Amino acid sequence: GDSVTQMEGPVTLSEEAFLTINCTYTATGYPSLFWYVQYPGEGLQLLLKATKADDKGSNKGFEATYRKETTSFHLEKGSVQVSDSAVYFCALSGGDLFSGGYNKLIFGAGTRLAVHP
Amino acid sequence: DAGVIQSPRHEVTEMGQEVTLRCKPISGHNSLFWYRQTMMRGLELLIYFNNNVPIDDSGMPEDRFSAKMPNASFSTLKIQPSEPRDSAVYFCASSSSLRDRVYGNTIYFGEGSWLTVV
Q1: Which residues of chain B does A102 touch, with a Cβ-Cβ cutoff of 8 Å?
Q2: Where are the beta strands (DSSP E) in B1-118?
């Protein structure tokens, strides 16, 4: 079945460092890919998404490119801030448009990011 | 526009008691999802509805769990009887299914119901 694999955390960085969180997926068909962020004590918020190969999603300085050839959707940010400390979830949906399986999200395990001043 | 609204935000209950979690999806959304989050198992999809009909409940852990969606603007997740291992954060989420099958799915989450069973 469809699945998402993320790099294990925690990831600890100093402010203004470069961030990469790796995400790879397994899916039949053509899934949409997402990054969600969860700040402490809160629900999940959509950070960015990409719906087809070579699309780049971006938001708040974060970027991720949908790479079908490597089945990856790595999250990057050029200069992290303390306020970026959170748990980041990679997810996919709709891998098989013909299965009748609606648009449920399949999540990775999450990667905790801690940014220090 | 209001987001997904869940209640209660926090609940502490004794083992054996019935727990009812409530959810109001975003107006106009026709898909609704219940997820559970724990440290050990991460985010698990329990059940999802489309147009008020349960589509897949294979993630519901056991018969003690039940979910209903009597209309497009309300859903409940019930645990009876509750056990300490049910302690978790329960998220409700919603989306619009038809358009998102073409343009990509955006599921919006509520802030969660933090359940502790002692």
Answers
A1: 31, 48, 50, 55, 97, 101
A2: 5-7, 10-13, 19-24, 31-38, 42-50, 53-56, 65-71, 74-79, 88-95, 108-109, 113-117
